[in-house]
């Protein structure tokens, strides 16, 4: 068939930059499209319409078409890293990505870092869908998520993958979703560093990916508020670990340790956390670990009310909190600092 790549559209019109705030169209890395395979959803390019002086999306591969190798070559030649998909097509896109996952992970042409970038991209789409689409939140979707976490683990397990690459992979574009994946990714690396067995690492990773799902119950105007929270708003925020536990407790693929971790991830060693104000000795070991990773990830990410802290500064803040009031498990925090130091 004739495609936009064969038409008169000047490829120089294609917008290369990534804008995270597009209405219904979501970015997908070009490298996540396999040449020679049928694509079950429309794939768009973002282009500049110089006549109408506006940005628009044009279909570059219609639903049901085979993604031609020459199209991929054109995109690569022109250094276009992103195509777009319609958010309504996410279930189809996720099935496509899940179907291609093992082929991607076994591709000898790609480095483990390149593979991790692509699995990260797919996991971001999955997290967004699982968090926002309640009616699609079923066992089948959890299996998809489990496979993606296993894929991420497979990448970082590779001998050539250095732990410092984990932090390079973490991006902070879409706050709740990237926070979830970054926490999962750092969790996979840290529990591996601690010498955990593989099955436990993956179970921890899935729990970490989902730990903040209860946040979806908080109205956006509260979640992204830049000023101080009112008492009632703060109560809503404090409810998210219990909401997350309730939303996930029926999924049998999620082990009970992971569920308890979701429930207790804001408990603090000094008893000043929530929802139950537990002391360190009563906090589940997985939740103690997640508390550290969660804080570190949040401090190093940009928030509406503050810039991101550099890693060293974030760790100093955490070390001070730990020394002054025992927020974190001190030995675990020391291990975490050593882990990040490589
Ligand atoms: Fe949380
Ligand atoms: Fe969190």
Written overview of the protein:
By secondary structure, the chain is mainly alpha-helical. The chain is built from 14 helices and four strands. The protein folds into two domains: 87 residues, no CATH class; 232 residues, Hypothetical protein af1432 (Orthogonal Bundle). The strands form two sheets. It has a two-stranded antiparallel ribbon with strand order 1-4. A hairpin with a 4-residue loop joins strand 2 and strand 3. Helix 3 crosses helix 6. The longest helix has 21 residues. The mean pLDDT is 89. The structure holds fe (ii) ion (2 copies). The site of one fe (ii) ion (FE2) has 4 residues, from loops. One fe (ii) ion binds next to helix 6.
Summarize the structure in short.
The protein has 342 residues and is mainly alpha-helical. 51% of the residues lie in helices and 7% in strands.
CATH homologous superfamily descriptor of the largest domain = Hypothetical protein af1432
Q: Label the structural class.
A: mainly alpha
How many helices does DSSP assign?
A: 14
Measured distance between first and last alpha carbons: 51 Å
The main sheet comes to:
2 strands, antiparallel
User: Helical proportion?
Assistant: 40-55%
Low-confidence stretches: none
- Record field, number of beta strands: 4
Query: Mind telling me the C-alpha Rg?
Result: 21 Å
N to C succession of SSEs: EEEHEHHHHHHHHHHHHH
Overall average residue pLDDT: 89
Looking at the overall shape, the CATH architecture of the largest domain is Orthogonal Bundle
- Give the total of domains: 2
Under CATH, the topology of the largest domain is which?
Hypothetical protein af1432
Give the strand order of the largest sheet, numbering strands 1, 2, ... along the chain.
1-4
Strand composition percent? 5-15%
Quickly name the level 1 CATH class of the largest domain: Mainly Alpha
Globular, elongated, flat, extended or rod-shaped: what is the shape?
A: globular
- Cofactors and ligands present? fe (ii) ion
